[in-house]
Amino acid sequence: MHPGVIEAGCDEAGRGCLCGPVACAAVILPDDFECEGLNDSKQLSEKKREELRPFIEENALAWAVVMVGPEEIDEINILNASIEGMHRALTQLAVRPQHIIVDGNRFRQFEDIPHTTVVKGDSKYMSIAAASILAKTHRDELMVELSEKYPGYGWEKHKGYPTKAHKEAIRKLGLTPLHRKSFNCGYA
Protein backbone atom coordinates (compact mmCIF):
# COMPACT_ATOMS: atom_id res chain seq x y z
CA MET A 1 0.00 0.00 0.00
CA HIS A 2 2.88 2.36 0.84
CA PRO A 3 6.08 1.23 -0.95
CA GLY A 4 9.19 1.46 1.22
CA VAL A 5 7.12 1.72 4.41
CA ILE A 6 7.20 -1.14 6.92
CA GLU A 7 3.56 -2.10 6.90
CA ALA A 8 1.72 -4.63 9.07
CA GLY A 9 -1.43 -6.29 7.82
CA CYS A 10 -3.98 -7.34 10.47
CA ASP A 11 -6.94 -9.68 10.39
CA GLU A 12 -8.87 -12.04 12.64
CA ALA A 13 -10.60 -15.41 12.44
CA GLY A 14 -13.44 -16.82 14.47
CA ARG A 15 -15.35 -13.63 15.10
CA GLY A 16 -18.69 -15.25 14.20
CA CYS A 17 -18.08 -18.46 16.13
CA LEU A 18 -20.20 -19.57 19.08
CA CYS A 19 -17.21 -20.84 21.05
CA GLY A 20 -13.47 -20.67 21.41
CA PRO A 21 -11.22 -17.66 21.01
CA VAL A 22 -11.02 -15.08 18.28
CA ALA A 23 -7.59 -15.41 16.64
CA CYS A 24 -5.92 -12.14 15.68
CA ALA A 25 -2.84 -11.89 13.48
CA ALA A 26 -0.39 -9.22 12.37
CA VAL A 27 2.05 -9.83 9.51
CA ILE A 28 4.82 -7.76 7.98
CA LEU A 29 5.93 -9.01 4.56
CA PRO A 30 9.08 -7.96 2.70
CA ASP A 31 8.53 -5.56 -0.24
CA ASP A 32 9.55 -8.27 -2.72
CA PHE A 33 7.25 -10.94 -1.22
CA GLU A 34 5.55 -13.12 -3.80
CA CYS A 35 3.21 -15.97 -3.11
CA GLU A 36 1.10 -17.70 -5.72
CA GLY A 37 -2.48 -18.17 -4.57
CA LEU A 38 -2.31 -15.91 -1.52
CA ASN A 39 -5.85 -14.64 -0.93
CA ASP A 40 -8.52 -14.20 1.73
CA SER A 41 -8.43 -17.37 3.85
CA LYS A 42 -12.19 -17.86 3.37
CA GLN A 43 -11.61 -18.18 -0.40
CA LEU A 44 -9.02 -20.95 0.02
CA SER A 45 -9.41 -24.62 0.84
CA GLU A 46 -8.20 -25.85 4.21
CA LYS A 47 -5.45 -27.78 2.40
CA LYS A 48 -4.27 -24.64 0.57
CA ARG A 49 -4.26 -22.58 3.80
CA GLU A 50 -2.18 -25.29 5.50
CA GLU A 51 0.28 -25.24 2.57
CA LEU A 52 0.62 -21.44 2.68
CA ARG A 53 1.04 -21.14 6.46
CA PRO A 54 4.68 -22.33 6.73
CA PHE A 55 5.65 -20.33 3.63
CA ILE A 56 4.22 -17.15 5.19
CA GLU A 57 5.76 -17.85 8.60
CA GLU A 58 9.20 -18.51 7.09
CA ASN A 59 9.21 -15.58 4.65
CA ALA A 60 7.50 -12.80 6.61
CA LEU A 61 9.72 -10.16 8.20
CA ALA A 62 7.60 -10.60 11.33
CA TRP A 63 4.33 -12.24 12.33
CA ALA A 64 2.30 -12.89 15.47
CA VAL A 65 -0.97 -14.61 16.29
CA VAL A 66 -2.85 -13.89 19.53
CA MET A 67 -5.93 -15.64 20.91
CA VAL A 68 -8.55 -13.70 22.87
CA GLY A 69 -10.68 -16.13 24.86
CA PRO A 70 -14.44 -16.42 25.29
CA GLU A 71 -14.48 -14.86 28.78
CA GLU A 72 -12.84 -11.69 27.50
CA ILE A 73 -15.10 -11.69 24.41
CA ASP A 74 -18.14 -11.86 26.72
CA GLU A 75 -16.71 -9.09 28.89
CA ILE A 76 -15.74 -6.52 26.22
CA ASN A 77 -17.72 -7.77 23.14
CA ILE A 78 -16.40 -9.42 19.98
CA LEU A 79 -15.47 -6.21 18.13
CA ASN A 80 -13.42 -4.89 21.04
CA ALA A 81 -11.87 -8.34 21.59
CA SER A 82 -10.84 -8.47 17.90
CA ILE A 83 -9.25 -5.02 18.02
CA GLU A 84 -7.56 -5.77 21.36
CA GLY A 85 -6.19 -9.02 19.92
CA MET A 86 -4.78 -7.23 16.87
CA HIS A 87 -3.13 -4.68 19.19
CA ARG A 88 -1.56 -7.53 21.18
CA ALA A 89 -0.35 -9.19 17.96
CA LEU A 90 1.20 -5.88 16.81
CA THR A 91 2.97 -5.60 20.18
CA GLN A 92 4.53 -9.04 19.66
CA LEU A 93 6.00 -8.29 16.23
CA ALA A 94 9.79 -8.47 16.12
CA VAL A 95 9.78 -5.50 13.71
CA ARG A 96 7.93 -2.29 14.52
CA PRO A 97 5.60 -1.28 11.68
CA GLN A 98 5.40 2.28 10.35
CA HIS A 99 1.86 1.79 9.07
CA ILE A 100 -0.95 -0.69 9.78
CA ILE A 101 -3.59 -1.92 7.36
CA VAL A 102 -6.57 -3.71 8.85
CA ASP A 103 -9.24 -5.84 7.22
CA GLY A 104 -12.69 -4.36 7.81
CA ASN A 105 -13.89 -0.89 8.73
CA ARG A 106 -13.24 -0.66 12.49
CA PHE A 107 -9.97 -0.24 14.37
CA ARG A 108 -8.63 1.85 17.25
CA GLN A 109 -5.41 3.80 17.17
CA PHE A 110 -2.41 1.63 18.08
CA GLU A 111 0.35 3.62 19.78
CA ASP A 112 1.46 6.41 17.41
CA ILE A 113 1.32 4.31 14.24
CA PRO A 114 -1.03 5.48 11.48
CA HIS A 115 -3.54 2.91 10.23
CA THR A 116 -5.95 2.36 7.36
CA THR A 117 -9.01 0.12 7.46
CA VAL A 118 -9.82 -1.68 4.22
CA VAL A 119 -13.13 -3.44 3.61
CA LYS A 120 -12.35 -6.81 1.99
CA GLY A 121 -8.69 -5.99 2.57
CA ASP A 122 -7.84 -9.69 2.75
CA SER A 123 -8.55 -9.93 -0.99
CA LYS A 124 -6.69 -6.68 -1.82
CA TYR A 125 -3.45 -6.73 0.19
CA MET A 126 -1.01 -9.61 0.64
CA SER A 127 -0.11 -8.77 4.24
CA ILE A 128 -3.79 -8.79 5.27
CA ALA A 129 -4.35 -12.03 3.32
CA ALA A 130 -1.32 -13.53 5.09
CA ALA A 131 -2.68 -12.42 8.48
CA SER A 132 -6.05 -13.93 7.55
CA ILE A 133 -4.42 -17.29 6.76
CA LEU A 134 -2.31 -17.35 9.93
CA ALA A 135 -5.26 -16.40 12.14
CA LYS A 136 -7.49 -19.04 10.54
CA THR A 137 -4.96 -21.91 10.55
CA HIS A 138 -3.81 -21.27 14.12
CA ARG A 139 -7.42 -21.06 15.34
CA ASP A 140 -8.52 -24.15 13.39
CA GLU A 141 -5.61 -26.12 14.84
CA LEU A 142 -6.62 -25.07 18.37
CA MET A 143 -10.29 -25.94 17.79
CA VAL A 144 -9.33 -29.45 16.62
CA GLU A 145 -7.28 -29.88 19.83
CA LEU A 146 -10.17 -28.56 21.95
CA SER A 147 -12.62 -30.91 20.21
CA GLU A 148 -10.79 -33.81 21.90
CA LYS A 149 -11.37 -32.22 25.31
CA TYR A 150 -15.05 -31.54 24.51
CA PRO A 151 -16.18 -34.38 22.22
CA GLY A 152 -19.60 -34.43 20.63
CA TYR A 153 -19.74 -30.80 19.49
CA GLY A 154 -18.04 -31.36 16.13
CA TRP A 155 -15.51 -28.55 16.54
CA GLU A 156 -12.98 -30.56 14.56
CA LYS A 157 -15.29 -30.11 11.54
CA HIS A 158 -16.99 -26.70 11.90
CA LYS A 159 -14.39 -25.07 14.22
CA GLY A 160 -17.10 -23.57 16.44
CA TYR A 161 -19.12 -21.76 13.78
CA PRO A 162 -22.93 -21.72 14.21
CA THR A 163 -23.77 -24.73 12.07
CA LYS A 164 -26.96 -26.73 12.47
CA ALA A 165 -24.92 -29.63 13.92
CA HIS A 166 -23.22 -27.34 16.45
CA LYS A 167 -26.52 -25.82 17.62
CA GLU A 168 -28.01 -29.32 17.91
CA ALA A 169 -25.04 -30.46 20.03
CA ILE A 170 -25.50 -27.44 22.33
CA ARG A 171 -29.18 -28.29 22.79
CA LYS A 172 -28.27 -31.90 23.58
CA LEU A 173 -25.05 -31.47 25.60
CA GLY A 174 -25.34 -27.91 26.95
CA LEU A 175 -22.73 -25.17 26.89
CA THR A 176 -19.04 -25.72 27.60
CA PRO A 177 -16.79 -23.20 29.39
CA LEU A 178 -15.52 -22.31 25.90
CA HIS A 179 -18.89 -21.14 24.59
CA ARG A 180 -19.40 -17.40 24.39
CA LYS A 181 -22.20 -16.68 26.85
CA SER A 182 -22.93 -13.27 25.29
CA PHE A 183 -23.74 -14.92 21.94
CA ASN A 184 -27.07 -16.52 21.11
CA CYS A 185 -25.65 -20.01 20.83
CA GLY A 186 -28.71 -21.36 19.07
CA TYR A 187 -30.23 -23.09 22.06
CA ALA A 188 -32.66 -20.24 22.86
Defining key terms:
single chain, 188 residues, alpha/beta, 5-stranded mixed sheet, 6 helices, 5 strands, 39% helix, globular
Outline the secondary-structure elements.
Blueprint (H helix, E strand, L loop, with lengths): L6 E7 L8 E7 L17 H14 L2 E7 L1 H7 L1 H15 L6 E5 L11 E4 L7 H24 L5 H4 L5 H10 L15
Polypeptide structure, described:
This protein is an alpha/beta fold and 188 residues long. The chain is built from six helices and five strands. Strands 3-2-1-4-5 form a five-stranded mixed β-sheet, with helices on both faces. The longest helix is centred in the C-terminal third of the chain and has 24 residues.
- Sheet with the most strands? 5 strands, mixed
Question: Class by helix and strand content?
Answer: alpha/beta
What percent of the residues sit in helical stretches (DSSP H or I)?
Answer: 25-40%
Shape: globular
Total strand segments: 5
Order of helical and strand elements: EEHEHHEEHHH
The average pLDDT score comes to 93
Number of helices: 6
Low-pLDDT parts are none
The N- to C-terminal Cα distance equals 45 Å
**Beta-strand residue percentage:** 15-25%
How are the strands of the biggest sheet laid out side by side?
Answer: 3-2-1-4-5
**Rg calc:** 17 Å
Summarize the structure.
The chain has 188 residues and is α/β, with parallel strands linked by helices. The chain has 6 helices and 5 strands. Helix 1 packs across helix 4.
